[in-house]
Amino acid sequence: MEYVIQAPPVPSLAxxxxxxxxxxxxxxxxxxxxxxxxxxxxxxxxREAPFFFLKPADAIVTDGADFPYPPMSKDVHxxxxxxxxxxxxxxxxxxxxxxxxxxxxAVGLDMTRRDLQAEAKKMGRxxxxxxxxxxxxxxxxxxPAAKIGHPGKGAIWLKVNGETRQSSDLSQLVWNIxxxxxxxxxxxxxxxxxxxxxxxxxxxxxxxxxxVLEGGVDGVGxxxxxxx
Length: 228
Ligand code: MN
Prior knowledge:
By secondary structure, the chain is an alpha+beta fold.
């Protein structure tokens, strides 16, 4: 293929146990998927239908790299999340078949310019400037489901400078992984390379330059990065 300008590189993640990488196509994110986080954001955590937003694939920051504090914000928050990596695409995927579409799992941070998101909410505007900025999606290496299975429970945690900020369990997800995949696939045709950030537990808070963020999901993996 010949292009008139240089084609952009394919964003990708390392995969545990192989030198081959996982190419990232789209990044879907689920909102308000832990009841305690919905409450801390001022919402009623009743089981309303899940809602989604997206980040660009090139917003990925790999484990160990620095997170550059983004411009135009004074309130950048961490949101620690389990990430689902889709290996087989589809639409209208039934709940009972959803896990068969999963290649593996990772842990990631849905970094958020909370002040811009709050302004967008107030004005009835899209969330993109709050959620989809450059480097807004730090993500660990992927571990294949063939190795670890499909985690339905397990601690999810985040420490900032060694101090615990977020601590919950995957069993507290409002919409579990198969339900989330099934619902998302009614709205979009999922494809290999898609990532789904599955929502964050309570404890989101601001970061500042110099902070070291270290988080993980027991049985899946960890991520560590510095805010610069
Ligand atoms: Mn989130």
